[in-house]
Design brief:
Elements lengths: L1 H30 L4 E2 L5 E2 L14 E11 L5 E4 L24 E4 L4 E12 L4 E25 L18 E25 L6 E28 L11 E8 L3 E17 L4 E12 L2 E7 L2 E7 L2 E14 L1
Antiparallel strand pairs: 1-2, 3-6, 3-15, 4-14, 5-7, 6-7, 7-8, 8-9, 9-10, 9-11, 11-12, 12-15, 13-14
Length: 318
């Protein structure tokens, strides 16, 4: 009996001493490294998250075409002059006189097109830059007109002598044709701010600055016909004709170029987007010189402010 009581007492004492120790070891083992609580109070370790690689593209290529409005190449001429006599019949000023007063200038069509390519870089999800080059259609300005003046000394046909001994005046008819054409290659560095994407559509704003290489050519032709007022008072049939012409060599003129753009891109695949935008384009003015009958004539082309509606494709490159 005493033996039994002793064994029972020893068992209870061992349980009391060992219980907290075993419970502490179990809790420590369950909490190692953190984890989720198990069904019986234990914890299941959670592995550290694996970083997901960023496969967003960094580079892109682009191709654009545009239809332009407000493309008149407004021009004006200075320096050219005609006449060597004393009076003019249809002009109030004495000769020589410039041809700007009797000519009309057609600055060409108000519509045109452009075509360009470029390469760009994504700095972030909301900012990108690119460099572009484009060819702008050839523009042409035509100046035409005609007038006449009275030359006291015949320039083409000798004047006759009247019975009173006076020298006849010759009436000189002047016809002018002057054409200036210009084609431009435009190179610019641009930056864009992409707005928050709406499904597949991403609106953006942008702008750029660069330069234009203007290929300028000018051709001038003048025809002079004269008649003796004494023998053909109305000059219906000129007695003689002469003329001269001048053509400039091809001139390449560099001017400032800049743009402001607003548009949106629509993603049609993982790497391809359609691009639609409006662009305001500024190209600085230039001029074309020509030597016309011994005079330096200059045609000035004013600064150009143009508006384009453009469409294009953009290809992302990883």
């Amino acid at each position: 009996m005493n033996t039994t009581i002793k064994k029972l007492t020893l068992s209870i004492t061992a349980a009391v001493i060992a219980g907290p120790v075993l419970f502490g070891m179990s809790a420590t083992a369950g909490d190692y490294g953190g984890g989720l609580k198990g069904m019986r109070g234990s914890y299941v370790p959670v592995p550290a998250p694996v970083p997901i690689p960023d496969f967003r593209p960094k580079w892109y290529m682009r191709f654009d075409v545009g239809m332009g409005m407000g493309l008149d190449a407004k021009t004006s001429e200075s320096g050219g002059s005609y006449g060597a006599g004393e009076t003019t019949e249809n002009l109030s000023a004495a000769a020589p006189f410039g041809f700007g007063g009797f000519t009309n200038t057609d600055d060409g069509s108000s519509y045109g097109h452009s075509m360009g390519i470029g390469a760009g870089y994504y700095y972030s999800r909301n900012f990108r830059v690119d460099v572009t080059g484009e060819l702008r259609m050839e523009k042409e300005s035509n100046t035409t007109g005609s007038t006449q003046y009275v030359d006291a000394v015949a320039t083409v046909a000798a004047g006759g002598v009247t019975a009173a001994g006076a020298t006849n005046d010759d009436t000189v008819n002047v016809t002018v044709s002057d054409t200036t054409s210009m084609q431009s290659a435009i190179f610019m560095a641009n930056g864009y701010v992409d707005m928050n994407r709406i499904d597949r559509l991403t609106p953006y704003l942008g702008g750029g600055v660069g330069f234009a290489v203007n290929d300028v050519r000018r051709t001038h032709t003048t025809t002079l016909s004269s008649c003796e007022s004494f023998t053909a008072n109305n000059c219906d049939t000129p007695t003689a004709a002469a003329g001269y012409s001048s053509r400039t060599d091809r001139q390449y003129v560099y001017t400032l170029a800049a743009n402001l753009t607003a548009g949106a891109s629509y993603k049609i695949s993982d790497v391809t987007s359609l691009d639609f935008n409006y662009r305001y384009l500024y190209v600085g003015g230039t001029d074309a010189m020509a030597n016309i009958n011994g005079n330096s004539s200059k045609v000035e082309i004013e600064d150009q402010h143009e508006h384009y509606i453009r469409a294009g494709l953009r290809w992302d490159i990883n």
